[in-house]
Amino acid sequence: MSIGNSPNSPEEDRPSAGPDRPSVGRVLQQARIGAGLTVEEVSTATRVRIPIVQSIEQDDFSRCGGDVYARGHIRTLARAVSLDPQPLIERYDAEHGGRPSPTVAAPLFEAERIRSEPRRPNWTAAMVAAIVAVIGFAGFTFFSSGSKHEGTPIASDTAKADKPGPARTIHPRAPQPAQPAPSDSAIAGLPKDQVTIKVTAKDGQSWVSAKDADGKLLQDGLLKQGESKTFTDKKRIDLVVGNAGAVQLYVNGKEVKKVGDEGSVERLSYTPGDPQAG
Predict the structure, then answer these.
(1) Backbone phi, psi, residue 229, to 5°
(2) Rounded to a whole number, what is the distance in angstroms from the first to the last CA of the chain?
(3) Residues in domain Cytoskeleton protein RodZ-like C-terminal (predicted)?
(4) pTM listed for this prediction
């Protein structure tokens, strides 16, 4: 008996495709047709590219990029057409030299699938929001610190202290005179068909913005302590006042007793009939 005819010959043990044993690609193709699916529909469902699906159905695994990728594609396509992938993978291993040492295939063959680009965070919007927040905080700190330090004597010649010279006496700053309240005759002389507003930085500096009813900017800047601004309009005056606790405000000749707290920012709006409560 020759060795080639031995029942233990490796050639007889190795399975081969024949008329009664369709190939891996043929099995997948028949299952797809039986399920009523096109190649395009299988590609969409599995995200395996159309050329690769067509090649596998023709038993051409060269497009897969290796055995690990091929096994992953076979498993994915088999599940898409309701087949058990394990017998097909075993047949592929038998026909292509056996299965190598175990390797995690999923992360590798997923590189062939169609993936959408991840959405990137909108850093521009985040930066703009951060800048606005910083500017607002800086403005609030400026108003608060300006009102607290107003009137504090500062020795401007500190840098020259090492030079001999006569002693200097620093006199405290004289308090600012209070703004006189408008007399009854002055109030009576104000036009009744318009709004008149007088803003005075009485107890410290204040930032003031004023607009008329049409949105025209009448004032937008810093009032130093003791400075005043007067605004008139036939319909309305809109104010934004920083460090509102330091401001003295007259509307149509009547004092507004409480404009706001020290360091606060207030938004106010007045018409010819205001203030209603005097």
Answers:
(1) -140, 140
(2) 127
(3) 204-268
(4) 0.34
